[in-house]
Write a structure and sequence with these properties.
two-stranded antiparallel sheet, extended, MetI-like fold, mainly alpha, about 425 residues, 20 helices
């Protein structure tokens, strides 16, 4: 490094050995390090974009997407715009003719039945209506009246409810999936109404999911706190050995762990046999602990317990032991010193563990489906059913979106009450 004098400003400028100003050389080096860091982070960013952000965006879109009606009925939908669905008069001849042309065109490319399946999610019988219409309309010659001929094929084409449904779903976007997700629908005027009490499923499942997840989180705290305290206070060699036992479930298949609880909790299982042997219950009154909420709570508490222990242990390990000794030396009892000194210092670990366990539990569906029966399933089980079973992707996406919004609201609430800055993993 050398110095050169600036004659005009009477200032000394530091330069490198090759005569480049030091400031420019430092900026170039910082820019190079920044570019290298970006290159290293790029694969992770691309992975998050493809595996996380794109699926979420697709889910949000599917929850309101309804373009299939416009695509499969391109002649009928524009004509229906002028039809008064609040009246008692069926659409005119021109609309029926457009419907026949659209169904025949959809029959050629074999896509019209997808429209029937979509409408069937809103009103039962629509899928069979389109299947029968496809078979009959293929043999339909040029009739004197398309309206009369179509109604003869299936009486539902003469039902105002059918045409009201088609017109109501003729937009490219629809809120009907969210109506169904909150146990509701629309009346003849298109207004939102709640389903009858015996047909309300989803909101009850949401409440059950939240309550059971809170119970699971509570039980993981009760079981995980003393385990973490023991691991943090034992000598390092023994603590590391016991930590292997905590991590052991991660090396065992989730399916194996879940089915093991079925073996333990069933009426003829190990736990019931033990209770009968020691005389707690008699053989005729064995406990029912599987395929209900008890099975879900027990199995998921066991599965999610390490997610509570690890953040608690990492935080407890950083608490100096002399804190408790100082409190005891000043006259505090062991319990009071723990309550006033040790417990507040572990709150960041409790917060991190609660967030991890609660968020993971409300999204679980494999374990509740295996051990939960009808009373211990979560809303995630119905989401999986609609995506994989009924193929009602819109309703599944709407339920998933509501679950996502609840999680985000939980984050905001936790930040307001506790503060995300107080969450620590070590």
């Amino acid at each position: 490094m050398r110095k050169i004098n600036n004659i005009n400003n009477n200032q000394e400028i530091l330069t490198t050995a090759d005569g480049v100003p030091l400031k420019a050389s430092l900026n170039r080096a910082l820019r190079r390090e920044r570019n290298i860091s970006l290159l290293l982070v790029t694969p992770l960013f691309v992975f998050v974009l493809i595996a996380f952000l794109f699926p979420i965006a697709d889910m949000l879109f599917l929850s309101v997407d309804n373009k299939i009606v416009v695509e499969k009925l391109p002649r009928t939908v524009p004509l229906l715009a002028d039809w008064d669905e609040t009246g008692t008069v069926l659409p005119d001849e021109q609309i029926y003719k457009a419907l026949v042309q659209d169904i025949n065109a959809g029959t050629v490319d074999k896509t019209i039945l997808r429209l029937g399946r979509r409408l069937n999610f809103e009103q039962g019988g629509m899928s069979s209506l389109f299947r029968r219409s496809v078979r009959k309309l293929k043999r339909l010659k040029e009739p004197e009246s398309y309206k009369a001929a179509t109604i003869r094929i299936h009486r539902k084409w003469g039902d105002l409810a059918t045409w009201r449904l088609i017109k109501r779903l003729s937009g490219k976007f629809t809120p009907t999936y969210f109506y169904s997700a909150v146990d509701g629908g629309v009346d003849k005027a298109g207004h939102f109404v709640r389903n009858p009490e015996n047909q309300r499923i989803y909101l009850k499942l949401f409440v059950r999911t939240i309550l059971l997840s809170l119970l699971i989180t509570l039980f993981t705290i009760i079981l995980g706190y003393p385990i973490s305290y023991l691991l943090a206070t034992l000598p390092t060699k023994l603590s590391n050995l016991l930590m292997i036992l905590v991590l052991l479930p991660f090396w065992t298949s989730l399916l194996v762990r879940t089915t093991s609880w079925i073996t333990l909790l069933q009426r003829e299982g190990v736990i019931n046999d033990l209770l009968v042997w020691i005389g707690v219950v008699d053989n005729a009154h064995r406990l029912t602990m599987i395929h209900n909420q008890i099975g879900t709570i027990v199995a998921m508490t066991h599965i999610l317990l390490p997610f509570m222990v690890l953040p608690l242990f990492s935080v407890m390990k950083t608490i100096p032991p002399n804190y408790m000794r100082a409190a005891r030396s000043m006259g505090a009892t062991q319990f009071r010193a723990f309550l006033r000194i040790y417990l507040p210092n572990t709150v960041p670990g409790i917060g991190a563990g609660c967030i991890l366990v609660f968020i993971l539990s409300i999204g679980y569906y494999i374990t509740p489906s295996l051990v939960g029966g009808t009373s211990g399933t979560f809303i995630s089980n119905l989401i999986a059913y609609h995506v994989q079973g009924s193929l009602n992707w819109g309703l599944g996406a709407a339920l998933g979106t509501m679950l996502l919004m609840f999680v985000l609201a939980l984050y905001v609430l936790y930040d307001k009450v506790v503060g995300l800055d107080n969450i620590k993993l070590g």
